[in-house]
Design brief:
This protein has 15 helices and 2 strands. Among the domains are: about 160-295, no CATH class; about 300-419, no CATH class. The protein has a two-stranded parallel ribbon with strand order 1-2. Helix content is about 65%, strand content about 0%.
């Protein structure tokens, strides 16, 4: 599909039980596979179909082939979906038949391309369908190669056995959207460095409390893996400035090395290392959210303005405002996931964890929207606040679906614990 370019141990740490048999049953049917993949699918659809201005065309428009840059972007767009789908299906060493992954990417892309026929100024392209399918195939192949070169213990932690690693996965579409939504504002692209630092903290924490003891991966290789993850996630930033992803990779390498050298985390409890890691991530991520919602930072604030609707989309028609709205949704999805992760690690029930996630995400959404009302270039919006809150709830649900999937894989019977 044509991507819119802005030129116009099993781990002992998994102990949280599910307090509701219903969620356990849902987790057996859905689990992390549909929780995480549906999120990536939603973001992909939002990127490719915005601004959703449908109409009945007088004639069908096809573009049989685009340039090499569009081809490369189409492959990269579906690469994370293929990689994560393969991970969720738990590939075995040596890989297996990848044809079904290609067919899945091909069919999803074909559905989106057919929908693009009803968008003004958009064209369907058979070549885009093929390149999207190839992107899913390449992502699945990369997953198999990683499983071949890294041992099963490390792949288990990367895939399903460690919910903390999902923060790294959920950062991918957020960094991608940051590059797309930057538009002509080069300085806004540097917000991705905060996200790169959050991912570095998680990867360093997982290494120090898991892989380092097992001797499965050298520290320098981990730093290079983190840099590759950030670079692949930040491809759209090359449209704004190539220095943003390149210097960002160097920043991520230095951050990972520093976190591995400095005694920054408490190593007294190897089974509960997630809480110290989350405590390091939260300040960085809160800073990112403040900058994201209040960007550009004004010299002075004015009188408060608010609305029930999305007036900013009407005042500033175009793709960039819509992408920034999607970016806010993705940012709160990750916030909801981390909130649920932190409460789950404190061994509260699932229901109580979801309520706490709704409370904190709702409080954050309300605070940020009220603050935007004083911004000279923004208008507080009730609809946008509800949309970001929905993203936070969705992130919390992803966490509990993953936990249900993990417990099913480990074959553990959940024990009821009072709230």
């Amino acid at each position: 599909m044509r991507v819119m370019m802005l030129r116009h141990r099993p781990s002992e740490s998994v102990r949280e039980p599910l307090s509701k048999p219903g969620m356990r049953a849902i987790g057996k049917r859905l689990g992390l596979r549909w929780g995480l993949l549906s999120y990536f699918g939603i973001v992909t659809v939002l990127i490719t179909l915005t601004p959703f201005r449908f109409h009945w065309p007088s004639r069908l428009h096809f573009l049989w082939a685009g340039g090499w840059f569009d081809t490369a972007c189409n492959v990269l767009l579906f690469l994370p979906l293929g990689f994560l789908y393969r991970l969720a299906r738990q590939p075995q060493p040596g890989g297996g038949r990848l044809g079904h992954v290609f067919r899945l990417g091909f069919m999803v892309s074909a559905g989106i391309e057919m929908t693009q026929l009803f968008l003004r100024g958009r064209y369907a392209s058979p070549m885009d369908v093929l390149t999207n399918g190839v992107g899913a195939l390449v992502g699945a192949w990369l997953c198999d190669r990683a499983l071949h070169f890294l041992n099963q213990r490390w792949m288990g932690r990367v895939a399903l056995e460690l919910p903390l690693m999902n923060i790294v996965y959920l950062l991918v579409p957020l960094i991608w959207l940051n590059g797309l939504a930057a538009g002509s504002d080069r300085q806004r692209g540097y917000l991705s460095w905060f996200l790169g630092l959050c991912g570095s903290v998680v990867l360093a924490g997982v290494y120090r409390y898991g892989m380092k003891l097992a001797g499965t991966l050298p520290a320098l290789v981990l730093a290079l893996v983190a840099a590759g993850w950030f670079l692949a996630s930040n491809i759209p930033a090359f449209l704004v400035s190539p220095f943003i992803p390149v210097y960002g990779c160097l920043f991520v390498i230095l951050a990972v090395c520093a976190l591995l050298i400095l005694p920054s985390l408490d190593e007294s409890d190897q089974r509960r290392f997630e809480i110290p890691v989350l405590k390091q991530v939260f300040p960085l991520y809160v800073t990112y959210l403040l900058l994201l919602f209040m960007w550009p930072i004004p010299a002075r604030y004015g009188a408060w303005r608010g609305s029930l609707e999305l007036l900013e989309l009407a005042d500033q028609p175009g793709v960039v405002p819509i992408l920034r709205l999607i970016e806010h949704f993705a940012a709160f999805t990750l916030l909801g996931y981390m909130t649920a992760e932190s409460t789950g690690r404190r061994e509260v029930s699932q229901t109580r964890s979801l309520w706490w996630s709704c409370f904190w995400c709702g409080l954050a959404a309300a605070t940020l929207e009220v603050g935007r009302g004083f911004h000279p270039y923004h208008i507080a919006s009730l609809v946008q606040g509800l949309l970001t809150l929905t993203g936070g709830v969705y992130g919390a649900v992803i966490y509990w679906l993953q936990l249900a999937s993990i417990q099913r894989l480990l074959g553990r019977r959940p024990q009821m614990r009072p709230s």
